[in-house]
Design goal:
mainly alpha
Length: 262
């Protein structure tokens, strides 16, 4: 089994949707390539937080894998109290934001009613700007939360912005280059991909290529560079290819990307 196939089957493996043969292939691949255990742990943790019930795993799975999952669950129990405290404070924060939205909406409607004789309502742009400001603040607040789900929510909120600020972009790049969760970093790439018409964003994405260690993130950046036909990224691709500790699948992906760009 190659890394690409492992990546494609990872979700179904964690959810227990694979046949017994495919499960054994995945388990053998992990034994032979222990450097991917972390990616498996992250996928398991991410999916457990998405679904209300954790899918029951196959009895044929390796004992070592059970041990790994149990270890992850123990870690989750230790942070349960902190998450409850976080939820309490975030709940208050969201209430304040909701109230702000409500006040803005009422003000907008009142202003519209008072100016119903005018063809163009001067309050519309002001209302939009204030709404954008509140949403941007929500993004920045969520990106600083210890919960990966909250940070994923932050990236989702970015996609709702009509105009992104430099502060939000900088926060996204900080997330892309430093976040410990691979899924959050992948979401940050997707969000930043919507603003590649901004030179600062293109430069930041190119610079991020050599800062990544996760093969999934490296491959996602390569795909984006091919889509953008960004020739400036070729130098970074070649450097990754020449590094001994670069994953073989990533090296192959970089070579393919170079061919598709040049």
């Amino acid at each position: 089994m190659k890394y690409i196939e492992f990546k494609e089957l990872l979700t179904d493996y964690v959810l227990g949707n694979l046949s017994e043969i495919k499960q054994k292939e995945i388990e053998f691949f992990i034994k032979e390539n222990p450097e991917y255990i972390k990616e498996l742990e992250e996928a398991s943790f991410f999916l457990e937080n998405i679904y209300e019930e954790v899918p029951e795993t196959s009895t044929s799975m390796d004992i070592k894998f059970y041990t790994m999952l149990n270890s992850q669950k123990e870690k989750e129990k230790k942070v349960l109290v902190l998450e409850k405290i976080e939820t309490f404070f975030l709940g208050n924060l969201f209430k304040k934001i909701a109230y702000t939205f409500a006040i803005l909406t009422v003000g907008f409607l009142l202003g519209k009613g008072l100016n119903n004789t005018s063809i163009i309502d001067p309050n519309i742009e002001e209302f939009k700007q204030e709404t954008e400001t509140v949403r941007s603040q929500l993004v920045l607040t969520l990106l600083d939360q210890p919960s990966a789900n909250k940070r994923l929510q932050a990236v989702s909120e970015v996609n709702k912005l009509n105009k992104v600020t430099e502060t939000v972009l900088q926060a996204l790049f900080k997330t892309l280059n430093n976040d410990e969760n691979v899924n959050v970093r992948l979401s940050a790439i997707e969000a930043l991909g919507n603003y590649t018409d901004i030179p600062l964003v293109r430069e930041g994405l190119i610079a991020s290529i050599l800062k990544q260690e996760s093969p999934l993130v490296q491959i996602a950046l390569a795909d984006l560079m091919v889509l953008l036909q960004e020739k400036e990224a070729v130098k970074s691709f070649k450097k990754l290819i020449n590094e001994e500790d670069t994953n073989e699948s990533v090296k192959q992906k970089m070579e393919e990307s170079i061919e598709r760009i040049i």
